[in-house]
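Summary of Year 1 activities. Much of the first year was spent building the evaluation harness for sequence design. The harness presents a backbone, in tokenized form, and records the residue chosen at every position. We chose the following record to illustrate the format because it has been used consistently in internal testing since the harness was completed.
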């Protein structure tokens, strides 16, 4: 008879006991007494310095390029000095606007270790959207790739706060033609800006406090333009500890982990999600930098290429979002690829069909499936469901980490703290609120939105959830007007605003349409002005001219009668979606 598996509670108590790596403490965070990890790194600078311990192991693999941990540290330290030389100081914003490239990571660590605030901007945005992000954040420097710089060129005269634009070469040729860029901005190639990297390069001296600003990640809002979620070094390092704890607890309970014949092996992570998302940056990049994991990067996601890299690089962890996992499993090359190294198939950012759990457990003999819950406002991970727990509860996102308080609050509640007398229990649904050291401090220069979403250390997630008797969280619905398509958050109001600019549109409502691969697609129900007509093809072009391609609706439903609304005038989207799906 084998040993009894520890319950989640037993394992948590054991790992968080006094003197252990995951001992808990409390700290005053923005005036609120908050549970914290006692031994969390104080800053991202500390994390980068710790990565030197991994020495000559591979850290970054991009196509055929390889960069060790030591090489990366020297490059990041040199980049920090170069930023300092052009006047970047602690608190200045440094934007990164590019697809996943090694330069993204070097720039991130160099800027963060200097005390600058890193602003990862969505690389799929249009030139106008990119310009908004750069201006709104007040970025002093932008590190961009060739495709993004071409989008920005028509808007250079609007980038009044930006001084330096550093251009990385996607084709690795470093073909940089300075004369094509306007003279009023300083354009430099990444290679020439970095210059010679000394073998003994160290970071510039700077004092960084845990509650100093570290990042601004833009997240679409329910009204108007995207807003920047302002994260601190405490936020990012708490998330690092959250994920370390989740992995350690899973190993303690289920005997999983990166070991072979009793020996530890290097984690090798196939990076398939964008670094400009909190998942890619906080949950993958920062964690693997600290832990000594190898990051295998792809120029763009392709399931066949992913399988080649899984075999070549002995990938131990991959995932990203559910649609990517499904594409790999469905690939005709899957059966002929050696996937025996895979030990974890984890994802988040989108609802996952329960059948995917079964497929993973069947396809990967030693691979543990996992699904998590988090958001930009929680610096990535708040809960995770792994291994046998996930197999048993495939519709749950797991239990919250020990430093997180979670509460189910009535959707119409307007208090600052969850009411102690509110209904509780496994059958009670309501809005999920989260409190912890990983919750960001608010939105950049948006006091009203910050006040509405963050109260006394709690973030109001906008997700409707329930929590069972063992603490497992189930996301029932989204109160926020959001669609998740293949891992990309799409806020309906942005798409609706673009549609309302078309003269034929009288009223419209954007809704999520279920899709077995992407999770959801964008649908729109609309009514037309009297005497007007328009085709779906014309509206597709109209939206694509104004928003990034993933926002463009793929389902159009024309309606003669008015859209259903409540007494306050709000469209009843859940009812509308049910009607559309029932008649489609």
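For this record, the design step produced the sequence shown next.
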């Amino acid at each position: 008879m084998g040993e009894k598996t520890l319950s989640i509670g037993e394992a948590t108590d054991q790992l968080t006991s006094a003197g252990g790596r995951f001992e808990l403490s409390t700290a005053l965070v923005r005036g609120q007494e908050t549970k914290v990890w006692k031994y969390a790194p104080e800053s991202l600078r500390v994390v980068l310095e710790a990565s030197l311990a991994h020495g000559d192991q591979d850290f970054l693999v991009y196509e055929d390029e390889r960069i060790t941990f030591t090489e990366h540290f020297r490059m990041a330290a040199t980049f920090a000095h170069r930023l300092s030389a052009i006047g970047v100081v602690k608190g200045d914003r440094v934007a990164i606007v590019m697809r996943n490239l090694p330069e993204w990571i070097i720039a991130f660590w160099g800027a963060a270790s200097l005390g600058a605030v890193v602003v990862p901007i969505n690389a799929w945005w249009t030139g106008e959207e990119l310009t908004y992000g750069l201006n709104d954040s007040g970025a002093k420097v932008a590190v961009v790739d060739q495709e993004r710089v071409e989008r920005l060129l028509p808007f250079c005269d609007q980038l009044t706060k930006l001084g330096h634009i550093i251009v990385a070469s996607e084709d690795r040729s470093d073909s940089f033609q300075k004369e094509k860029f306007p003279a009023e901005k300083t354009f430099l190639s990444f290679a020439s800006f970095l210059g010679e990297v000394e073998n003994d390069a160290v970071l510039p001296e700077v004092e960084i406090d845990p509650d100093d600003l570290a990042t601004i990640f833009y997240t679409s809002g329910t009204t108007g333009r995207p807003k920047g979620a302002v994260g601190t070094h405490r936020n990012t390092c708490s998330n690092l500890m959250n994920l370390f704890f989740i992995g350690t607890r899973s190993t303690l309970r289920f005997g999983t982990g990166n070991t072979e014949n009793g020996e530890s092996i290097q984690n090798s992570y196939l990076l398939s999600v964008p670094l400009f998302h909190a998942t890619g940056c906080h949950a993958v990049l920062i964690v693997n930098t600290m832990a000594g994991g190898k990051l295998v990067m792809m120029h763009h996601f392709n399931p066949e290429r992913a399988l080649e890299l899984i075999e070549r690089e002995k990938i131990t962890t991959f995932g990203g979002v559910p649609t990517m996992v499904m594409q790999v499993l469905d690939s005709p090359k899957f059966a002929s690829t050696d996937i025996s190294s895979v030990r974890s198939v984890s994802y988040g950012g989108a609802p996952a069909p329960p059948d995917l759990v079964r497929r993973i457990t069947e396809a990967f003999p030693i691979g543990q499936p996992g699904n998590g819950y988090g958001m930009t406002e929680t610096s990535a991970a708040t809960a995770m469901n792994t291994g046998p727990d996930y197999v048993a509860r495939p519709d749950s996102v797991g239990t919250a980490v020990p430093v997180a308080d979670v509460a189910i609050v009535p959707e119409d509640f307007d208090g600052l703290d969850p009411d102690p007398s509110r209904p509780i229990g496994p059958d009670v649904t309501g809005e999920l609120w989260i409190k912890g050291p990983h919750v960001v401090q608010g939105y950049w220069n948006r006091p009203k939105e910050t006040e509405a979403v963050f109260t006394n250390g709690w973030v109001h997630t906008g997700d409707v959830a329930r929590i069972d008797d063992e603490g497992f969280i189930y996301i029932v619905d989204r109160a926020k007007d959001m669609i998740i398509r293949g891992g990309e958050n799409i806020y309906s109001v942005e798409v609706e605003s673009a549609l309302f600019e078309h003269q034929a549109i009288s009223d419209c409502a954007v809704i999520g349409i279920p899709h077995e691969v992407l999770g959801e697609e964008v649908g729109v129900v609309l009514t037309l002005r009297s005497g007007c007509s328009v085709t779906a093809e014309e509206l597709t072009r109209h939206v694509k001219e104004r928003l990034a391609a993933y926002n463009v609706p793929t389902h159009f439903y024309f309606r003669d009668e008015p859209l259903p609304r409540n007494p306050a005038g709000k469209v009843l989207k859940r009812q509308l979606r049910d009607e559309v799906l029932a008649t489609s």
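The CA atoms of residues 95 and 142 lie 5 Å apart. Quantitative recovery figures across the full test set are reported in Table 2.
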